[in-house]
Amino acid sequence: MTILETPIAVIDAQPFQRNLERMAQFAERSGIRLRPHAKSHKCSEIARRQLALGAVGVCCQAIGEAVAMVKGGVEDVLITNMVVTPGKLAQIAELARQASIGLCFDDEEQVRRAGEVFAARGAQVDAYIEIEAGGERCGVESPEEAVTLARTIAQHPLLRFMGLQVYHGKAQHMRSIAERRDAARDAGGKALAVKVALAGAGFSCERITGAGTGSFAADALVGVLNEWQCGSYAFMDRDYGENDADDPQFEHSLFIAATVISLRDSFVVIDAGLKALAFDSGLPLVAGRPDLSYFGPNDEHGRIDVSKARTPLKIGDQVHLIPGHCDPTLALHDEIAFMRQGQIEAMWKVDGRGPR
Amino acid sequence: MTILETPIAVIDAQPFQRNLERMAQFAERSGIRLRPHAKSHKCSEIARRQLALGAVGVCCQAIGEAVAMVKGGVEDVLITNMVVTPGKLAQIAELARQASIGLCFDDEEQVRRAGEVFAARGAQVDAYIEIEAGGERCGVESPEEAVTLARTIAQHPLLRFMGLQVYHGKAQHMRSIAERRDAARDAGGKALAVKVALAGAGFSCERITGAGTGSFAADALVGVLNEWQCGSYAFMDRDYGENDADDPQFEHSLFIAATVISLRDSFVVIDAGLKALAFDSGLPLVAGRPDLSYFGPNDEHGRIDVSKARTPLKIGDQVHLIPGHCDPTLALHDEIAFMRQGQIEAMWKVDGRGPR
Questions:
Q1: Residue B347 · residue B5 · CB < 8 Å
Q2: What's the per-residue H, E or C state across chain B?
Q3: Contact check, Cβ <8 Å, A261/B83
Q4: How far apart (Å, rounded) are the C-alpha atoms in residues A211 and B345?
């Protein structure tokens, strides 16, 4: 067993590989293109493993992620976000020389800005119209808006209209299968209405992309999407683990290893707090130790309630924490220890980490 | 005005400089050593500016912070934390060849582990006993425990007993001045009781170190500490801004710049969410725009309620957000734009960033 310097992000090779394979097989059986979201891992090594199992490319949210993925050999990147500043649009134009790049739009001003930069730089980019699918965030709200936007996109010869992005963020975390199916049906219905209106105006939607780890099985039943963007399935954080399990099922494979540094009567202090774990989706679990519970994070400290511990924790002991939310947790880490049966097999760079 | 690629951490030079000077002057007038906590900024450039104004050194929590500070020229670092793994203790031994290093203890097992590594490497390190001052985290709980621990420390010739660490984390965020004074008095009383017991056992406390941006003015009145560890005063996050103001006062100087990327009816979407801001102390404020309020962060998105906006926000507009909590916010950023009157004067590396 390697003694890890903690806190450190750790992937357990075996459940991780099973997760990648299960999703790849399910997408293949469903006849859906799988384009895993790299915002979950931000790691081109993981993207290459997903591509090797049949993924058509990756999604990114931040431009830094897209830059890292293209540099790491990914040839097809969909930026599932709006981009409006000249510097980032110039970065996208540069990426479009090396790879197939897609970008989302929900406003004519975004199209004007992107069109101008891409034309000046001769960069061909795929354009997707984002539909407000229930996430209460970005997206056009009606078929009419979508038709108007498609006409604006068509005025820019270097923007190639490819279809729709329909991502229902809230549906991912609905706990019951029935709720998620209802949400997927709503989102699919909105997408179909837009597709029909666009067809009437002469625009064909080659791709309808969306879905996440919470909703893809429900989206598969609805059958409107032809591309899935799931990312978290590779790791399964605590939050996704609380959804009623659908088929296929995934296992926790991402952990934050932490060390006990101080003892008190009813708790111990460990070296993993706000700088090692994201808490936006709640507290982490202690892997394999349901008798221990994490509480009270500070910047560099966490506490483990040991009042019900079956075996005591001593100074120097290590615990493996299952993060509440994997995506922002990895935003805190520059590297991941890829471990097999307790030994580090490789250190992977989180090469797409960073806010931009 | 420089067009920033966002989200990006920004320091406004003028309030930042005034904050550094006000704290330095108050510490000097109070006759207290100022040892600013580098966990707030993790940036050796900022540490050097604090030292130039009279700081005696810095505090660090993570070893990576201490490594960056020593590499950046800081000659005196107190690690205000417990360290128990061989790898980190070896790093500390290496740092102790280049700088004066202090370390905290609250358990004999920590002393045994540190003493062994430092003896093997011939590294002299200052030892502080941490007292449980009200933060419900680390620290010995009685004068008797402290005396026992001091005797253990004395058995290790390369550990030099220097005194006490008395940090009351909870006191920093008590809103009223009266509450903070009560907490400071309690913590000071505990420290004095330990100091007296140690003196009776032949141990002299040369330094009693503690305090933060919330409590230092109250600690000054109590007069037990002779070293302050305040860090957040340099930036003033939203949380500290909500304390009833004591004297001296500080100004917000750290911001996260973000760009409007999409428009909806009652809100706009900006490109700063969980990957750009920490939310453990709540939501950020929009600087200079009390008519706007941030809500609903996602990984790479935030929303700004514009229902009460005096002037509308357009796509491409930028806002400056005052983080809820500066320390974990900077844990997300590799660099800071140091700006003077809207122009970038320098880019500073957050060279101590990282979980370990």
A1: no
A2: CCCCCCCEEEEEHHHHHHHHHHHHHHHHHHCCEECCECCCCCCHHHHHHHHHCCCCCEEECCHHHHHHHHHCCCCEEEECCCCCCHHHHHHHHHHCCCCEEEEEECCHHHHHHHHHHHHHHCCCEEEEEEECCCCCCCCECCHHHHHHHHHHHHCCCCEEEEEEEECCCHHHHCCCHHHHHHHHHHHHHHHHHHHHHHHHCCCCCCEEEECCCCCHHHHHHHCCCCEECCCHHHCCCHHHHCCCCCCCCCCCCEEEEEEEEEECCCEEEECCCCCCCCCCCCCCEECCCCCCEEECCCCCCEEEECCCCCCCCCCCCEEEEECCCHHHHHCCCCEEEEEECCEEEEEEECCCCCCC
A3: yes
A4: 43
Ordered structural domains, chain A, with CATH: 13-232 (3.20.20.10), 254-349 (2.40.37.20)
Residue range A255-265: mean pLDDT, rounded = 97
Q: How many CB atoms lie within 10 A of CB A36?
A: 30
CB-count burial class (<10 Å; 0-12, 13-18, 19+) for B235: buried
d(CA A79, CA B120): 53
pLDDT score of A246 more than 90: no
Percent over 70 (pLDDT), chain B: 100
Decide if A275 and B331 are in contact by the 8 Å CB cutoff: yes
- Neighbouring CB atoms inside 10 A of B291's CB total 13
How does residue A136 score in pLDDT terms, banded at 50, 70 and 90?
very high
Q: How far is B102 from chain A (nearest CA, A)?
A: 17
Task: Write out the two tokens for B302.
Answer: 């935030």
ipTM, 2 dp: 0.97
Per-residue pLDDT reduced to its tens digit, B190-214: 999 999 999 999 999 999 999 999 9
Q: Do B299 and A328 touch (CB under 8 A)?
A: yes
Which tokens belong to A207?
């791709």
Q: Which residues of chain B are modeled with pLDDT < 50?
A: none
Beta-bridge mates of residue A344: A339
Contacting residues of A for B278, CB less than 8 Å apart: 274
Crossing angle between the packed helical segments B63-71 and B86-95, to the nearest 10 degrees: 20
User: B244: distance to nearest CA of chain A, Å?
Assistant: 22
Cβ contacts of A103 on chain B, cutoff 8 Å = none
Contact B269 A303 (CB under 8 A): no
Determine whether the interchain pair B85/A316 forms a contact, defined as Cβ–Cβ distance below 8 Å.
yes
Angle at A274 between CA B111 and CA A44, to 5 degrees: 110
